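Our preliminary data section would be incomplete without showing what the modeling component actually yields. Below, a chain of 192 amino acids is followed by its predicted structure, encoded as tokens that our downstream tools consume directly.
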Amino acid sequence: LMPMNEYDFSEDHMTWHNGYNLSQAEGGEYNMSMAYLSSWKGPVYEIDDPYGDGESPDDLTSVVHVQEMQIIASKDLDGIKRAVFLYGGVQSSLYMSLHDSYGNDSVSYNSENSAYCYIGKEKANHDVVIVGWDDSYSADNFSTRPDGDGAFICVNSWGDEFGEDGYFYVSYYDSGIGVHNIVYTKIESTDN
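Predicted structure:
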């Protein structure tokens, strides 16, 4: 897994300025990011609006313009892998639960292996970016054992304290990953 780039785009800005008027704790999903990026409200650089500081400047402007995005069909694992290879990342939604209602660790997340697998019917409440995959990642690495091996390597918006420097594995068999997928395929400078 790779360390995060200090000049990546700000997740904080997207969650505060997406126009949906939800708090960060209420989660989000792919339509919110599509609206934020296609309206050119962002992205802005992480260095200008760091994650988790409880504030987000109102005077920042987009550093690039997203001109084209594509939706990849539900659970099209090969299509997702192809898009990661061609474009560097695919945004995908999943149901994220790290703790149960009593504050205990979730049965879906194995923090020792940075491995996540939720099997259930809960609606997606979080988005991640799929940046790689490992077809032979063992099903034994997950707390909730999926039906087979294989996992996407994902980066989260919660900073480098989560997972392995912000990266973690999500089983191909997770109920949400790979269902709603967006890839941003044409980005231009702001003087376009």
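The mean pLDDT is 89. Helices lie at 11-16, 30-38, 77-87. Preliminary results of this kind motivate Aim 1 of the renewal.
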